Amino acid sequence: MENQKNNSNLKAIIAVLAVLLVGSLVYIFKITSDAKALQTELTKTTSEKDSVTKDLEALKATYDAAIAENTSMSDELIAEREKVVNLLADLKRSKGDVASMAKYKKQYLELEEKMKVLMQENEVLKKANETLTVQRDSTVMVLGEAKKFNEVLVGQNQELSKTVEVASKLIITNLKTAAYKLKSKGRQIATEKAKSADVLKISFTIAENKVAKSGDKKYYVQVIDSKNNVLGDKQSENFNGNILTYSFISTVKFENNTVDVSQDLQGTNFQKGSYTVNLFDNGELVSKTNFTLK
Fold it and tell me: 269 with 208: CB under 8 angstroms?
């Protein structure tokens, strides 16, 4: 009887020990799994921190290169680069936990999007500067041919030598002029003879610009004959103290796409010789061309 009681107690102890052993094994397994999960999470956040750090350093390098070009957008580019530098320093000081990494990645994506916009504007600005350099060289020739407008054209040349202040500058191309003789029923016959000419057709193209403000654009067309006379309306406009005498105004509806513009200047007794056509945007010379009537 005593032996049976001892056996029962022993079995109970063994059962308790077995339960404790199983519990310990389960606990050890859970601790091991949690440790592995934590290690995996730490490895992931460390990798993300390194990735975002490299992305921010690349973003800073892009701004450094753009600022080195010394365009009129330099101040804005420097300000945005400073935001990148500050975020990069803050990231390096952080512990790299999941919540903070999500915040840093979101801030990086916002800075990257802003950078894309600024780089596009900066590229447009550089192309505009290249065009203005060519136009400035052409303006020097205009000054020699039109002495009567020397003071006005010198002022325009000084304006053209400045860096374009906004990326939305519209570019003018393909400025052309042709003479025509008017026939019955409105027909126009091309001619190169001064005595046959009844009308001059001036045409030009406004290049596509998706970042420029749309709406009505006003251009002043100045046609100078071989005797330095301005043809057409001969109206004057004051631009910051510079008086521009023009032949007519061409108003164009610009909706960010390429626009072809054409307008006629009628007249009588056209002179033989070389003519100069200047196109102004608010007093700034943006294009010029020459043609000859025999």
Answer: no
Separation in Å, CA 183 to CA 132, 180, 268, 271: 40, 9, 15, 20
Beta bridge partners of 182: 188
Domain ranges, residue 204: 170-293
- Cβ distance 280 to 246 under 8 Å? yes
Whole-model pTM: value is 0.44
Residue 143 lies in a domain: no
Q: How do beta strands 284-293 and 188-191 pair?
A: unpaired
133 domain-assigned: no
Q: What CATH number does residue 235 fall under?
A: 2.60.40.10
Q: Is residue 160 part of a domain?
A: no
Q: Are 224 and 275 in contact (CB under 8 A)?
A: yes
Residue 238 confidence (pLDDT): 92
Specify the pLDDT at position 129: 72
Helix (H, G, I), strand (E, B) or coil at 212: coil
22 vs 54, which has greater pLDDT?
A: 54
Co-location of 275 and 177 in the same domain: yes
Choosing from 99, 124, 149, the residue where a domain stops is 124
How many whole angstroms separate alpha carbon 45 and alpha carbon 70? Answer: 38
Going by the DSSP 8-state scheme, the letter that residue 69 receives in this structure is: T
**CA separation for the pair 161, 150 (Å, rounded):** 16
Residue 140 within any structural domain of the chain: no
Residues 191 and 247 in one domain: yes
**How does DSSP classify residue 231?**
P
